[in-house]
Every structure is written in C-alpha cells, then in structure tokens.
Design brief:
Layout lengths: L2 H10 L5 H66 L2
C-alpha cells in the first residue's frame, strides 16, 4: 500500500488500533529489510563477477596485443634477413 492510501484510511478512521498498526508496520519493515539485504548480496555478487569478467577480458585481449608489439618487429626482421642473398 502506498503512503497516501494508508493516510486516507487513517483519516477516515477505518484503521486498526495503534498497537496493531504499529506491529503490522514493523512486520512489513522487517520483511522489506530482509528483501533489501537479499538484493544487496545479489548486487555484490554480480559486481564481483563483472569485475572478474573485465579482468579476464583484459588479460586475454590486451596482454597478447602487448606481446605482439614485441614479436612482430622481431619476426619481420628475421623474415627480411632470411630473404637477403
């Protein structure tokens, strides 16, 4: 229920007594807190998976490119040296 709806019920006097209303709200807040904690744990796990995906992608793409920057000139040098007679 939205806050405005609860307010309209209270203003019309159709709500429970104060103690029962407080208990229901406390129960709702407790349930919401459990759901939020569950969502937070899920988000943290997703964040860790995303970070490791970036790290593994960088390792498999960027490191070979850096290696090629050193290997290609040596390969071309060996290739051109072998062609000289």
């Amino acid at each position: 229920m939205s806050g405005a709806y609860l307010l309209s019920i209270i203003e019309r006097g159709i709500c429970y007594n104060s103690f029962q209303m407080d208990k229901e709200l406390l129960d709702r807040f407790t349930a919401l807190e459990k759901k939020i904690d569950s969502i937070y744990r899920s988000v943290e796990v997703t964040k860790k998976i995303f970070i490791w995906t970036i790290v593994i992608t960088a390792a498999t793409v960027i490191l070979p490119l850096i290696g090629l920057a050193f290997v290609i000139p040596q390969y071309l040098n060996a290739l051109t040296t072998g062609l000289k007679f």
